[in-house]
Amino acid sequence: MAKSKKKKETTFLVCQETGDINYTLLRRPGGEKLQLNKYCPRLRKVTVHLEKRK
Questions:
Q1: Non-local CB neighbours of 19 within 8 Å, separated by 6+ positions
Q2: Which CATH number applies to 9-53?
Q3: CB of 13 within 8 A of CB of 25?
Q4: Among 11, 25, 33, 40, which residue has the least CB neighbours within 10 Å?
Q5: What are the tens digits of pLDDT across the range 30-45?
Q6: C-alpha closest to that of 35 among 8, 7, 16, 10
């Protein structure tokens, strides 16, 4: 089977409460947007982070 030729893109995880970009990921395009609970250093607690692409 042939592999997909789609290249990986840089995506960012943005905090919902502050709007800060706290994490970066390399993901293939397509699929659903990520929604993860991650640590926010400004608030010093775990908050919801959403995926944002360039």
A1: none
A2: 2.20.28.120
A3: yes
A4: 33
A5: 889 999 999 999 999 9
A6: 16
Model confidence, pTM: 0.82
Residue 10 φ/ψ, nearest 5 degrees: -80, 125
pLDDT in tens, 4-40: 677 999 999 999 999 999 999 999 988 899 999 999 9
Which tokens in the block code for residue 50? 């959403």
3-state secondary structure 1-54: CCCCCCCCEEEEEEECCCCCEEEEEEECCCCCCCEEEEEECCCCEEEEEEEEEC
